[in-house]
Amino acid sequence: MSKNTGNTILAILTGAAIGAGVGILFAPDKGSKTRVKIKDSYKDAQKDLQKKYEELSEEVKTKFTSTKFDFEGSYDDLLSSMSHKTEDVISFLESKLAELKEKNSKLQK
Questions:
Q1: Percentage of the chain exceeding pLDDT 90
Q2: Where are the membrane-spanning stretches (predicted)?
C-alpha cells in the first residue's frame, strides 16, 4: 500500500471519527445515552482500525513472501548455472590433463 493511500485512509477514518463525535455531542439525548453512543462509536472505530491493520499486515506479508520466493528462485537459478559452468570447467581440465599425460608418456619413451 503506498504512503499516499495510507494517508488517505487515515484522513477518512479521522474525519469519520470527528464527525461521529460532533454529531453525538450535539444530539439532544440524555448523558447516559450519549455516553453509550460514544462508547459504541469508539468500538466501531477500533474494529475498523483493526481490520485496516490486518489488511495492511497481510498485504505487506504477501509482498515480502513473493519477494523472498523471487530471491530464492534467482539464487537457485544462479546455483544451477554455476553448477553447469563448473561441470564445463572440470571437463575442460580433464581433457587438458589427458593431453598432458599423453605428452608426458611420449617424452618418457
A1: 0
A2: 6-27
Question: For residue 9, which of 50, 46, 59, 49 has the smallest C-alpha distance?
Answer: 49
Q: What is the C-alpha to C-alpha distance for residues 62 and 64, in angstroms, rounded to an integer?
A: 6
- Rounded Cα gap, residues 25 and 34, in angstroms: 7
Contacts for 56-60: CB closer than 8 Å, 24+ residues apart: 56/1, 56/6, 59/1, 60/1
Q: How many domains does the chain have?
A: 1
Q: Give pTM, 2 decimals.
A: 0.39
Give the mean pLDDT of the chain. Answer: 78
Nearest partner of 46 among 9, 18, 17, judged by Cα: 17
Q: What range does the domain containing 23 cover?
A: 2-107
